[in-house]
Amino acid sequence: MSTTHEEITAVPRGMVRPGSLRDLIDAHLYMPFPFRQNQHAAKAAAGMVTWLSDRRLTDDPTVSAMITATRPAELAAYNSPDMDAELLQIVANQIAYQFVFDDRAEEVGRHWPGRLLPMLTESIEILRDGRPPRTLLGAALDDLHRQVRERCTPAQAARWAFNSREYVHGLLYEAVAQTDTVPLRIGTCKSIRSLIAGVEPFHPLCEAAQPRELTADELHHPLMRRLGRLSADAAVWIPDLFSAVKEQRAGGLINLSLAYQRAERCSLPAGVMLALRLINSTIREFEEVYDEIKPQLSPAGAGYVEGMAGWIRGCYFWSRTVPRYADTLVTSAAR
């Protein structure tokens, strides 16, 4: 049974049906990491609102409403409870930016695939070549890159840029999948989901929160690399449980629960249960691999892994109450 925390319910309690889809997830998800929240959460939330406004991203009422329903700073505070205020602010800003960018890329890719390429190539040029931005989204990314370079070491900033470029490239794969009429296989869905998870760009920020850089032996150890993959997959698959209803209604494809539902031709709750089994085994493997490598890690290395574990914990506690996924509370788990 998972440990849960709930400060604000996205839907009034009287509207929550007994045996809701969220109840099903709470009952079966293995969550060994207890709820925690950063003490600078309110400051990060206020700073994020100001940053989005300064970058003119919330000039669009649709974007502003999405940010209200998504609560990026709350996700940052749950994922990164030990970060100082400055670093937490970068995390909150980046989560907000990625939600804006991802939603826009999905919309453009689904309806006007040809227009997606200029949007993605601008991001790559900013991250790889230092080219000046041409759009508001590009200017926001350029400013984020500046924040990271000012706070992180050159090596950490380079890793951040590399991981961010991989995320951008993944959005092109998602667009191709969304326009294809051939049913998407589970393996392909998982591969694309790994690319567009958007979690791994935050791993260098987890490293930056430590008192020193990790050694090359620690950072590139095969078990450490495995932990990074397990963390990113578990962290992004957990929201897939809670967003399945929303994605199904919107015609989304890149969602683990929906992929299982299509493959097995089963109900949505049954698809969620199949996804839960994979997530639980992934989290247990994360624990096992961490136990194996822990004796070899420095305090900074151990703190880095704890930062990755924070993404697994934070994505769960955030997903279960965020208004963006409120449909999960009023959808029956009956099969």
From TrEMBL:
It comes from the Bacteria. InterPro entries: Amorph_synthase, Isoprenoid_synthase_dom_sf. It holds the Pfam family Terpene_syn_C_2. Gene3D superfamilies: Farnesyl Diphosphate Synthase. This is Sesquiterpene cyclase. It comes from Streptomyces resistomycificus.
